[in-house]
């Protein structure tokens, strides 16, 4: 009987933690903004939130109706906060509708990268998703207002000069 209780509590813990992480992950995929990727610290915070909710709903001293109420309230509040963050990120791109030069002549431009809360690793990961494997092939990278990266290759620049 104790093993069954342990397994059922473990399944409940994994389900609650998984639900909180999934809600945050799903909300981060709804944005087309490059900067809105699920970060390690966000995963850790959502795991901790899931643990807190689990321990409250696991507490047998609290009545069952209060445990249900707390669980539903915490999930609704989490969904609401993720939605508000998503709306803020999507509006921020419209408010600051500017393009930034973030890479030119083989060098990252640190000021523009920092201003847009990016890192070189984020840019390189996004480039890999676009199929760019070698930075030496690139002349310029522009961060567009919608968060997309525009890549201008060295070959295209030399063809435009020769034409």
Describe the structure.
With 163 residues, this protein is α+β, with helices and mostly antiparallel strands. It has two domains: 94 residues, no CATH class; 63 residues, bsu07140 like domains (CRO Repressor, 2-Layer Sandwich). The chain has six helices and four strands; from the N terminus they run αααββααββα. Strands 2-1-3-4 form a four-stranded antiparallel sheet. Helix 1 runs antiparallel to helix 2 and helix 2 packs antiparallel against helix 3. The N and C termini lie far apart (80 Å). The relative contact order is 0.11. The model has no long low-confidence stretch (mean pLDDT 81).
In short:
By secondary structure, the protein is α+β, with helices and mostly antiparallel strands. The chain has helices spanning 2-29, 40-58, 64-95, 110-115, 120-129, 154-162; strands at 100-104, 107-108, 138-143, 149-153.
């Amino acid at each position: 009987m104790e093993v069954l209780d342990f397994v059922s509590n473990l399944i409940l813990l994994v389900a609650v933690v998984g639900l909180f992480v999934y809600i945050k992950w799903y909300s981060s995929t709804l944005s087309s903004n490059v900067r809105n990727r699920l970060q390690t610290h966000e995963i850790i915070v959502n795991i901790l939130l899931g643990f807190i909710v689990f321990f409250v709903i696991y507490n047998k001293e609290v009545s069952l109706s209060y445990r249900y109420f707390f669980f539903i309230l915490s999930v609704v509040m989490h969904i609401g906060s993720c939605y508000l963050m998503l709306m803020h990120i999507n509006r921020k791109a419209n408010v600051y509708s500017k393009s930034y030069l973030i890479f030119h002549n083989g060098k990252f431009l640190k000021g523009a990268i920092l201003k847009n809360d990016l890192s070189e690793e984020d840019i390189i990961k996004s480039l890999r998703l676009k199929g760019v494997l070698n930075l030496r092939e690139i002349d310029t990278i522009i961060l567009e207002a919608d968060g997309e990266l525009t890549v201008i290759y060295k070959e295209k620049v030399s063809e435009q000069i020769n034409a």
